[in-house]
Design brief:
Elements lengths: L1 E13 L6 E7 L5 E7 L9 E11 L3 E11 L4 H11 L13 H9 L3 H7 L12 H18 L4 H14 L5 H8 L3 H7 L1 H5 L5 H10 L7 H17 L5 E2 H12 L3 H14 L2 E4 L2 E4 H19 L6 H15 L5 H12 L2 E6 L5 H14 L4 E5 L2 H11 L3 E3 H4 L2 E2 L4 E2 L11 E4 L7 H10 L5 E6 L12 H8 L4 E4 L4 H4 L2 H10 L14 E5 L3 H20 L7 E5 L8 H12 L17 E4 L13 E8 L4 E6 L2 E6 L6 E3 L2 E3 H4 L4 E8 L9 H8 L2 E9 L1 H9 L10 H5 L13
Parallel strand pairs: 3-5, 9-15, 9-16, 10-11, 10-14, 14-15, 17-26, 18-24, 18-25, 25-26
Antiparallel strand pairs: 1-2, 1-4, 2-3, 4-5, 6-8, 7-8, 12-13, 19-20, 19-23, 20-21, 21-22
């Protein structure tokens, strides 16, 4: 990373949030050469001496520019910087003749807190000799006029940046703290850096910051933050809780404190509400509340009766069959009548069992009852697919709940429920404990809830095994579709998916005239060559498939020759060799297939959405990506939200369906060769599946039916074996 010192000369462009700025920057020691610098310069303005950390890049239109990752206020003595600001404010003096001026006296008295005192606690100015109430008011008025002229609404942000610079030597965190806590950010940071910064950064980043701000190593807030960090690490592995005794040792190592201190801190953290200790289990508060509330609401929904005469139910069933133009099987009819007659139902089944048709029939039956129905799924691509197959308008669960990224809250909750008569959730296996708790809380009293998913697929990325726990509890009505319909019986994809679930090695044709075949390659480099050849030549020619929109390469892992990173590089060279680079040093090119990797509610694109780079507006610095729903623009600083997507992991593909899937499978993926992963990959293919790699890898994946145990308690709560389950409102 390159370091550049200089002066911020001018702001050329800044977006509304202050997260992306184009600035003119005069570089020291180069005859004051002025260059373009891009990044977030929130809290600073023209005339500031800064030290930038980042990289030099070559822009197609604007030439050499500096891509700034973070900045420091370059004054060797930040106290002098504050003094300069106070002097420039022309504060009314009135002090003793020949003595220090008011700016110097304020600085001597309050040090790094000087700007905070002037902005929010001007009454303390009366602590200065010769400053009474009237003089303090005059100083405050002069300061307000100056700060408003210099920084406007960013005055508090500026003070926060200076404070961080003085104590830590890095002002970059100021924008995030200010965004979360506004004008109170500095007070809160001084009071408890772990509580303020801990929600934004991992413990290992917050701890050095807190130490520089004077936090004690044995402070309870630090111990609690360390315990929460261990719980968060467990959640990343899918666990809802940790064994309370077992977490003491890793927390002790992390905190470099005796286990006795951590054990006492855990008890105190429970008393303070930072964590919940329930028997031998320790939870983060949010997950514990979600777990308890979900169990309570599920039990209430499952027990609630619906007054629906048999004749009316039969009429609704006939109307549903008429609307979907299909004679339903006995199990499908059971699903429709259960959805009508119960407040809560789970619908599960593998490929070819008529799950989609059943969802359409349930939707038709609800509409026949004149119900308003909310259709949703955990991801944007899954919601889009639900819209396509159901004919209704589906949305993400976050969108249904009215998620606001600005304050990280939902508009819909128990007090402001969703305005609907029924909710149908597709791809429910992807829903984790926290998200389900939020959704369930917002389902209105008296509404029907239908959960649709395939319990044999990979579990949610987030903590919990919600679908499995609900099914295994026996408390909730479950309709499992297990009959493969005639129209699906001819598909090797469908038959092989069910064979894999039964522990049988799938039948893969050697010829390319079936919908499921194998290209055996023991050598990983040769297998990678075959993947590239399939996507760039054979499949587009033989099956008339678009390499970007119709074909998706899947792999269990990111690394090695048959990992997604290497495959993406090779596929980019084969499919888009002449694409114009989006940035001088970046990997993206115009024409590339890309995936959005974070939720962006402002742009209405979500983690896992796939598009293609359509064009680059060099003059405005905007990259346009074409998604199925239209074009979305990205500023240069936002390009980290997208990545190459010619190949993606099986986990990332959940909730999606592709016309053709090329699955790279090799023994080098041995850690990830699992039956559930293979089943999930196979069921992503709608028309064609090609497995490329070692046959032994296929056999090993089928044989490995071990499922990583997740520490969860929803099933136990549902059957009344653990904890309280009476906290929720009646259904």
């Amino acid at each position: 990373m390159v370091t550049v010192d200089g002066i911020l000369q001018d702001i050329i462009y800044e977006n509304e949030r202050g997260t992306f700025t184009v600035a003119a920057f005069a570089v020291d020691g180069d005859d004051d050469k002025v260059v373009r610098a891009v990044g977030s310069f929130a809290g600073v303005g023209p005339g500031e001496e800064l030290r930038l950390h980042g990289e030099w890049v070559q822009h197609d239109t604007y030439g050499l520019q500096f891509s700034m990752r973070r900045f420091e206020l370059a004054a060797s003595n930040p106290k002098a910087d504050i003094g300069a600001i106070l002097s420039a404010a022309s504060l009314p003096d009135g002090g003793p003749k020949g003595g220090p001026g008011i700016a110097e006296r304020i600085l001597d008295a309050f040090g790094p807190d000087a700007l905070e005192v002037l902005s929010h606690d001007a009454g303390r100015l009366r602590e200065l000799p010769g400053v009474g109430e009237k003089r303090a008011a005059q100083i405050k008025l002069a300061w307000d006029k100056h700060s408003d002229r210099m920084w406007g609404p960013q005055t508090d942000l500026r003070g926060l940046a200076l404070y961080l610079q003085m104590h830590v030597g890095d002002a970059s965190l100021a924008q995030r703290i200010y965004g979360a806590h506004g004008e109170h950010g500095l007070d809160m940071l001084r009071g408890d850096p772990y509580a303020v910064a801990g929600a934004m950064l991992p413990f290992t980043s917050v701890d050095p910051l807190a130490t520089k701000l004077g936090a004690r190593r044995d402070a309870q807030s630090r111990i609690a933050a360390g315990i929460v960090e261990i719980l968060l690490r467990a959640e990343k592995q899918g666990h809802v809780y940790c064994d309370a005794e077992a977490l003491v040792n890793p927390a002790s190592d992390l905190l470099a404190l005796p286990e006795s201190a951590v054990a006492a801190g855990l008890e105190r953290a429970h008393e303070d509400g930072a964590v919940v200790v329930e028997g031998s289990r320790a939870y983060r508060l949010r997950l514990h509340d979600a777990d308890v509330d979900s169990a309570s609401r599920l039990r209430a929904l499952a027990a609630a009766a619906v007054k629906l005469p048999d004749k009316e139910a039969a009429d609704l069933l006939r109307e549903a069959e008429k609307q979907v133009d299909v004679t339903l099987s006995a199990r499908q009819r059971e699903a429709v009548t259960t959805a009508l007659g119960r407040r809560l139902m789970v619908l599960t089944g593998g490929p070819g069992t008529g799950k989609t048709t059943t969802v359409r029939a349930i939707l038709a039956a609800f509409h026949a009852r004149e119900f308003d129905v909310a259709l949703c799924a955990p991801t944007g691509r899954a919601a889009r697919r639900l819209s396509e197959v159901s004919g209704g308008e589906a949305q993400t669960i976050h969108r249904l709940l009215g998620y606001s990224p600005d304050d990280d809250e939902y508009r819909r909750d128990a007090e402001h429920p969703i305005d609907t008569d029924a909710v149908i959730v597709d791809e429910f296996s992807m829903v984790d404990t926290a998200l389900f708790g939020d959704l369930l809380a917002a389902v209105p009293r008296g509404a029907h809830l239908v959960l649709v998913g395939d319990s044999d697929q990979l579990p949610s990325v987030g903590p919990g095994s919600v679908l499995e726990d609900i099914i295994d509890s026996g408390v909730v009505p479950v309709v499992a579709l297990d009959e493969i319909f005639r129209q699906a019986q001819g598909s090797l994809i469908v038959r092989n998916a069910h064979a894999i679930n039964q522990g049988e090695v799938p039948t893969l044709a050697g010829e390319a005239d079936r919908d499921c075949f194998l290209l055996a390659c023991d050598d990983p480099d040769s297998a990678a060559d075959s993947v590239v050849d399939l996507c760039s030549a054979r499949l587009p020619t033989h099956y008339d498939l678009d390499p970007v929109w119709d074909i998706q390469v899947l792999a269990p892992m990111r690394r090695r020759q048959l990992g997604t990173e290497t495959l993406n590089e090779r596929l980019q060279k084969a499919l888009n060799p002449a694409g114009k680079p989006v940035t001088a040093q970046g990997s993206l090119r115009a024409g590339d297939k890309v995936m959005q990797i974070v939720n962006n509610y402002d742009k209405d694109v979500f983690n896992g959405d796939i598009g293609q780079i359509d064009s680059v507006d060099a003059r405005k610095g905007t990259v346009w990506v074409r998604y199925p729903d239209g074009l979305v623009g990205y500023e240069r600083g936002e390009l980290g939200e997208i990545t190459l997507a010619y190949a993606t992991t099986v986990h990332k593909s959940q909730g999606s369906e592709y016309r053709a899937v090329v699955l790279a499978l090799h023994t080098q993926h041995h850690v990830m060769l699992q039956r559930r992963l293979l089943y999930t990959a196979v069921t992503r293919a709608r028309e064609l599946l090609v497995v490329v790699g070692a046959p032994q890898a296929l056999e090993r994946a089928v044989a490995n039916d071990r499922v990583s145990e997740r520490r969860t308690t929803l099933r136990e709560r549902l059957v009344g074996r653990v904890g309280p389950t009476d906290a929720a409102a009646d259904a």
